[in-house]
Amino acid sequence: MPRLLSVLLFALLTLLAPLTRAADPSADYRLGAGDAIRVQVFQNPDLTIEARVAEGGTITYPLVGAVKLGGLAISEAESTIADALRLGGFVQQPQVNIVLLQVRGNQVAVLGQVNRPGRFPLETTNTRVSDMLAAAGGATVGGDDIAILIGLRDGKPYRKVIDVPSLYLDENSQDDITVAGGDSIYVHRAPVYYIYGEAQRPGAYRVERGMTVMQALAMGGGPTIRGSEWWLRLHRKSADGSIEKISPKLTDPVLPNDVIYVRESLF
């Protein structure tokens, strides 16, 4: 009698599983590296195991060996193991049930020049880059306008350079893509230029988009009484590594790592 009840209970849970998953907002969660699962096969207790998905997306399962589950939804993973058992002749009509014990692959790392770097869970399946940057507190003052996203898509390495301001300024930014478990977002340090000589506040400053020499000079407080905005020298590293010495116009653009020298006025 107890065995009959257990059989009926397992059959009932198997029938209800699709309905339960359909009502679950995370039903389309796809397994990733680091996820811990329990695999059960009806009336085959010897095939019940607990395993962790390896970096390559596989688990080692009794009788069939390595099984690729990474990137599959729970129902797809169940079908994959069932097919392997049936095709191998181990179980004629396997009824496989997988329980997600611990989620590790369902996280995104946000690194570099952000206020709260770390790993953050994907709470929904349509989480976007802007959501993850917000979770990390946004970029620091010294953070670049460019972020780099790396991960896997369809089992292949994926890399995308993202224009951060456009995520919030453009109504339909093409860069605000959906992230996936295991992705990493890196915000590099913003490029800088240097100003010295007869400047009020010599030092290193962030290169803003479209910045001109006049604007760069203003960031440094302008020239001192002894200096002149018309008597400048710009040092710029060329493609071959040599240093060019330029007498810039105030409307010329400023590039990363430019060095502006404010010379003393002749009069």
UniProtKB/TrEMBL annotation:
GO terms for molecular function: polysaccharide transmembrane transporter activity; porin activity. It comes from the Bacteria. It is found in: Cell outer membrane. Coiled coil: none annotated. GO terms for cellular component: cell outer membrane; pore complex. Residues 192-246 form the Soluble ligand binding domain. The keyword Lipid metabolism does not apply. Residues 1-22 form the signal peptide. Belongs to the BexD/CtrA/VexA family. This is Polysaccharide export protein EpsE.
